[in-house]
Amino acid sequence: MADFKLDKVVIYGVGLIGGSFALALKQSSAVGEVVGLGRSSASLEVAQGLGVIDRVGELADVRDADLVLLAMPVGKMEAVMAAIAPHLGDKTIVVDAGSTKQDVVAAAQRAFGNKLAQFVPCHPIAGAEKSGASAAHARLYIDKRVIVTPLQENTPFAIAIAEAAWTVCGGDVSVMTPAQHDAVFAAVSHLPHLLAFTLVDALAKRPDAAELFANAGAGFRDFTRIASSNPEMWRDICVANRSALIAEVDQYMTALLQARVLLAEADAEGLESTFANAREARNAWLEPLEK
Fold first, then answer.
1. For the segment 46-98, what is each residue's pLDDT rounded down to a tens digit?
2. What are the DSSP calls for 229-240, one per residue?
3. Which of 128, 160, 173, 174 is least buried, going by the fewest C-beta atoms within 10 A?
4. What's 6-176's CATH class?
């Protein structure tokens, strides 16, 4: 969309994701005014003080907004959708940044009713273990994939606005169905977070936890980095996508049992084969990302 420019954007949830979206639009001169909404007035004041938003708004601000971004934990989406629905102007497009899609779509169907066509589900594959407006930065979405899962009700215009907004932020937009999205990200995102949280929690509860953490090195730090992520957000993601996630946990448990058999049998060749296959697969995945 040539010369893309939004006069007014409302961001509900001005943390890392919402704040970075605002800063990216500002840096690209693609927005006139950014208005922030959220449950914490203190957080909104911090965001305004940092220049992430231009002012703190109210629900009525969505009426004449070109675009509204919902950037809160997925468990909070439906309540916020229901709150803004009566205020939506006919030309306002709403997008979200939730890490699950089928539950968000179902929530939107209940909350937006005959305004559902104005909602375009999205998921930027960009994040960090830090959260809050102070962690936001304009380059968060550069060369990061953004998944758009359009609805049958969406107009080409609504989809084009959503895709153009993420593109101007630097994102690489691709399209999936909500079901495809949730199955894929259960495996490559939700499962790794569940594993990292669970490992650190299990070690922290052991009597020798202090000794274990005192001797943990770079490998432990790298493997568990995402256990520093927002617990509330990941609680909601795991519950929302639990069916797909349970299936991935079951597959992983099978793989762990197979690894345990190799260990019990001192099968050095089998272990090396598993490790070599993993290394080859990971290196092949990393190669295009490092160019």
1. 999 999 999 999 999 999 999 999 999 899 999 999 999 999 999 999 999 99
2. S-HHHHHHHHHH
3. 174
4. alpha beta
